[in-house]
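Bug #77: duplicate submission created two jobs. Keeping one. Sequence:
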Amino acid sequence: PVMVAPVIMAFGNAEQQQRFLPGIASGEVWWSQGYSEPGSGSDLASVKTRAEKKTIPGQGTVYVVNGQKTWTTLGQYGEWIFCLVRTSTEGKPQTGISFLLIDMKSPGVTVRPIIMLDGGHEVNEVFFDNVEVPVENLIGEENKGWNYAKHLLAHERTNIADVNRTKRELE
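Kept job's structure:
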């Protein structure tokens, strides 16, 4: 949850901030990260999970998401997942990526365990099969998700390094 909060604070609109940040701050809502995909390694620009806009009578406009994420740590507990999704194939690969928040209880979301050599189940595969996601769950602008992901990764690296603890110890 620490990872998605800075992105919502920096790029989410006021409604998204009011909707999502309290649950993150209190620890009541469990978030999963949907970045890695099979066969892509750490190359986030190669995201293949698609999100296509579609208008559904009576429901409004949604993104219909299809694809797969892998190595989703503790995804079996996730209530929400923040995902990099492909919204365009025009231009450089980085320019067609969007940052989408998806309710893990949505129809079409399937979580399957990846059992490790020690028999443990910490990571998962997450499948999206025609998952309808309200357009209100798009963070920032469509096709600008690469910028938001870089922002998140900068915060992730800072958290891993535990800069504040290190500064205190140095003092």
